[in-house]
Design a protein that fits this description.
With 413 residues, the protein is mainly alpha-helical. It is built from twelve helices and twelve strands. Helices cover 42% and strands 8% of the residues. The protein has a two-stranded antiparallel sheet with strand order 1-4. α10 (303-318) packs antiparallel against α12.
Length: 413
């Protein structure tokens, strides 16, 4: 028998991810030697001059400034590319990365996932990517924030530099997203369609909602999106209209009441569908948050949208887990160097399970064998540590976003 505390959604237990602190430590990363050698030599030379003079404070101050400049030039990772100050996007490093993004763009206008777009490419690597662009069968996806993230980045660099090639790359990506939409309004993980669960309408990891948000910005034509022509803006408006229809049609009902959403749906029947072995038809405590946030961002929401939000919020309240805490136990012999365990903690903040059984609100945990279990401890360690089984994002939705939205719109229902 497992000694793990039982998880219920009736308000009896709750879960948090325990951390020592909320501070994220980033190790200092030096510039490549070739990029910093000149400044480094100047710092050393000025420092020696100051020492020789005994009181050459000006030289010492200059050396310090050069040293600070070297330290400040921390290379931007691709995961940080959309987090920079506006002025950064006009600089040489931003342009270099944008050139990379164009090299990785497929012939159909989209991108593959899990690629470090900020990597410094050698000339042979650039030549190889240019040759690959002619491959009409290259896989292209919106999974793991691919395609719509590259598009937003290109648009920012275009706005900052005015270089037409970046605008052109954005437009090709936009045409790809518009072409990739199913006629009924959903988007699959991969387009051209890749057989298997990849062809499901995919909310998982924010895939479809990332596309919807970008197309909404395009349709409104605000800020940098004003460069999009009228025809494409109209197509984007039509696309998000059809997408909204799919969102409302796929909200799961239990005993006649609206709840939330599955992570993916069968493209033909619009019923909750299985993806990977451990991603079964269920109600998602994670993906549903992004959907509800999108619905709450709609100006002048229809009664249908208001009912969808209210139903999902009521479900989040019912599905809340209390009285438990999630801990990472370090063990270098294990996958990722730690295990994940659930412990009792009456004072813990609430969390939600990634997946709930439809109809019962029972949290479910599934390993690579595809078998449903009641406790996290009952699945293999590789899946315990390698997947996010609990989330806390509904808490901010319930405590902050929803009350603000309700005050503004819910009275219209």
């Amino acid at each position: 028998m497992s000694s793990e505390p039982a998880l219920t959604a009736a308000g009896g237990v709750r879960l948090i991810d325990s951390k020592v602190s909320g501070v994220i430590e980033r190790p200092f990363r030096f510039l490549p030697l070739a990029a910093r050698s000149g400044s480094f030599c100047l710092v050393v030379a000025l420092g020696l001059a100051g020492c020789a003079g005994g009181t050459n404070m000006a030289a010492t101050d200059t050396a310090t400034k050069h040293s600070e400049t070297v330290m400040a030039a921390d290379p931007v990772r691709w995961s940080q590319a959309l987090e920079q100050e506006p002025d950064w996007y006009s600089g040489a490093e931003a342009v270099r990365i944008a050139d990379n993004v164009l090299l990785y763009q497929n012939q159909n206008g989209g991108w593959l996932k899990n690629i470090d777009m900020a990597k410094v490419l050698s000339e042979p690597e650039k030549a190889h990517l240019k040759a690959e662009q002619a491959n009409a069968d290259a896989q292209t996806t919106i999974d793991n924030r691919a395609t719509f993230t590259q598009m937003e980045y290109l648009l920012r660099v275009y706005k900052a530099t005015g270089q037409e090639k970046f605008k052109k790359g954005f437009m090709r990506g936009l045409d790809y997203l518009l072409d990739a939409q199913y006629e009924d309004g959903g988007w699959a993980q991969f387009y051209p369609i890749r057989k298997g669960y990849y062809e499901h309408i995919t909310f998982n990891d924010g895939a479809m909602m990332g596309v919807m948000r970008l197309l909404r910005d395009v349709s409104e034509g605000k800020g940098a999106y004003a460069v999009v022509d009228t025809e494409r803006r109209q197509k984007a408006a039509s696309a998000i209209g059809k997408g909204l229809n799919i969102i409302l049609r796929t909200q799961i009902k239990v005993d006649g009441r609206l709840t939330a959403w599955c992570a993916q749906y069968d493209r033909h029947t619009l019923t909750p569908a299985k993806a990977r072995a451990y991603e079964l038809p269920s109600i998602s405590g994670s993906e549903s948050v992004g959907i509800v946030k999108y619905l709450m961002e709609i100006e002048n929401p229809s009664p249908e949208v208001i009912r969808a939000v209210e139903g999902a919020v009521a479900w989040f309240e019912q599905a809340k887990l209390t009285g438990l805490r999630l801990e990472r136990k370090k063990d270098t012999a294990l996958y990722k160097g730690y295990d994940v365990v659930v412990v009792n903690d009456p004072g813990a903040s609430p969390l939600w399970a990634r997946f709930y059984e439809i109809g019962t609100n029972r949290p479910i945990f599934v390993g690579r064998d595809g078998i449903i279990r009641d406790h996290l401890s009952e699945i293999e360690q590789e899946r315990r540590a390698g997947y996010s089984w609990y989330v806390n994002s509904p808490q901010a939705l319930l405590e902050k976003s929803y009350p603000q939205w309700k005050q503004k719109w819910a009275s219209r229902q």
